[in-house]
Amino acid sequence: MTLTAPPPPALTEVAAAPTGPRRRRRTRGNGSGTRTLISAIDLKRHRVAYLVAITVTMLLFAAAFLYPMWWMATSALQTPAELAEGKAIVLPSSWHPENYATAWTTMRMGKFFLNTAFYALGGWLIQLVVDVLAAYALSKLRPIFSRIVLGGMLASLMLPASALLVPAYLTVADLPIFGWNLLNTPWALWLPAAANAFNVYVLKRFFDQIPNDLLDAAAIDGAGRLRVLWSIVLPLSRPVLGVVSIFAIIGIWKDFLWPLLVLQDPEKQTLSVALARLANTSQVPQTEFMAGLVIASVPMIVIFLIFQRSIIGGLSAGSMKG
């Protein structure tokens, strides 16, 4: 008699298990598994209403942001009597483009343009040097108490800028240790601007994404810390360096309150401070003052329109690895 061994229990359970159809997961939205506020079917069904709503919303937001600038540009083309009426207009009744040329000459805007450009370029260079070195040290060198230092920098972002005016002014008026008075000098703008916690944080986040193996390989080849920074880190960080540079130049160019406090000499003032000072005098008509505001705002608008993609791309460059 031949005895046949029974199959293992596990195989019996597998064989006895029902083999019914598998359930498919339901996908909502556009069929790709991504949830959206409006499904693809509803979007196709109400496509015209959706496009109309989006267009109207964009036009309203564009009008809310662009109309003040349009009003400022057209106000400079009017006569002082028309501007004094204070009516909201779309197109002026009379055009006087010569107000821009008059404002350029009578308000000496060329000199204040050079002052502001000098302050902006110097502040950009000092900010770049100080912030890059600080971010590189916190990201790659990691000295003792680096976390505490970074936490203190980020905590300073929680304070309003007006709360730091008095301590910063006293520091600039009597520089600690040296006892120098930096008022009415470019250093009164450059040194406080160099301590920019936001730029340090953005640079550090980008430096964190650079592989340490790449830096270690350069160190094995004999490169020092500064050599690694100059030859490897900085070439890889061009996107974020461009963003920090744009923010530094725009920040100094449009700043008003701090230059008003530390630059009391009229010959050394920035463009925004000089325009405010001239506006308080009765010698400058309001139309010429409006023309001066338009001239002062044109460079920053042009810079933003040219580098807007670089700003967005540089800010998000260090947010993801890979």
Can I get a quick summary?
With 322 residues, the chain is an all-alpha fold. Helix content is 66%, strand content 0%. It has two domains: 42-96, no CATH class; 102-315, MetI-like (MetI-like fold, Orthogonal Bundle).
Written account of the structure:
By secondary structure, the protein is mostly helical. The chain has 2 domains: 42-96, no CATH class; 102-315, MetI-like (MetI-like fold). 66% of the residues lie in helices and 0% in strands.
Q: The biggest beta sheet, please?
A: none
**CATH architectural group of the largest domain:** Orthogonal Bundle
Overall number of domains: 2
**CATH fold title of the largest domain:** MetI-like fold
Mean pLDDT, rounded to whole units? 82
Quick one: CATH superfamily of the largest domain?
MetI-like
SSE order, one letter for each helix or strand: HHHHHHHHHHHHHHHH
Shape: flat
Helix content: 55-70%
| Secondary structural class | mainly alpha
Distance between the termini: 69 Å
Q: Enumerate how many helices there are, as a single number.
A: 16
- Unreliable runs, pLDDT <50, ≥5 residues? 10-17, 25-32
Give the total of beta strands.
Answer: 0
What is the CA-atom radius of gyration, in angstroms? 31 Å
